[in-house]
């Protein structure tokens, strides 16, 4: 068998020389990078449109709640420090960070999904218990995007 330099990469150890075919070393393709970025962008976007409704005529989307949290954070940071505000907020920051990376991190994406997923599943459960269709429907885009993301990463890394 003739070994062509173009077809193989060499890895030199201390005492031995190993030749590995180039096609066995997989680098993320442009399709993977872009599809992962689209999935992560859709996760961030879907997380902003969770809908909360409580007591009387009080209702807000999560993007409105996040804006209020940012305003209160500068005035009184201790007032907004709660696991249900901090964990999804940091998780969303992780997902936004993956949009900036050249190859989106699988680990940061999964951490982001789980962190925001805690809040979304809680909203879904409350919506089911109170039979609030708006709350139930507002969580479905995020859940659908999370399922697509898990299938995408499972397919590529299994």
Structure characterization notes:
The chain has about 160 residues and is mainly alpha-helical. The protein has one domain (about 30-155). It has six helices and four strands; from the N terminus they run E-E-H-E-E-H-H-H-H-H. The chain has helices spanning about 30-50, 60-75, 75-80, 85-100, 105-130, 135-155; strands at about 10, 15-20, 50-55, 60. The strands form two sheets. Strands 1-2 form a two-stranded antiparallel ribbon. Strands 3-4 form a two-stranded antiparallel sheet. The longest helix has 25 residues, at about 135-155. Mean pLDDT is about 85; it is low at about 5-10.
User: In terms of quaternary structure, what is this?
Assistant: single chain
Terminal CA distance reads 31 Å
Please report which band the strand proportion falls in: under 5%, 5-15%, 15-25%, 25-35%, 35-45% or over 45%: 5-15%
Q: Name the poorly predicted regions.
A: 5-11
Structural class: mainly alpha
Query: What's the number of domains?
Result: 1
The strand count comes to: 4
What is the count of DSSP helices, taking H or I runs of 4+ residues? 6
Helix content: 55-70%
Radius of gyration computed on alpha carbons: 22 Å
How is the main sheet built?
2 strands, antiparallel
């Amino acid at each position: 068998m003739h070994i062509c330099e173009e077809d193989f990469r060499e890895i030199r150890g201390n005492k031995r020389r190993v030749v590995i075919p180039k096609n066995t070393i997989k680098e993320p393709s442009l399709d993977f990078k872009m599809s992962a970025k689209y999935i992560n962008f859709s996760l961030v976007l879907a997380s902003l449109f969770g809908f909360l409704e409580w007591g009387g005529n009080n209702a807000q989307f999560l993007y409105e709640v996040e804006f209020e949290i940012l305003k209160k954070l500068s005035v009184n940071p201790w007032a907004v420090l709660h696991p249900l505000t901090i964990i999804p907020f940091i998780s969303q920051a992780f997902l936004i960070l993956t949009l900036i990376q050249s190859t989106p991190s699988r680990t940061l994406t999964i951490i982001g999904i789980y962190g925001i997923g805690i809040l979304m599943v809680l909203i879904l459960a409350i919506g089911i218990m109170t039979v609030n269709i708006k709350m139930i429907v507002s969580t479905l885009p995020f859940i659908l995007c999370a399922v697509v993301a898990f299938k995408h990463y499972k397919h590529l890394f299994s």
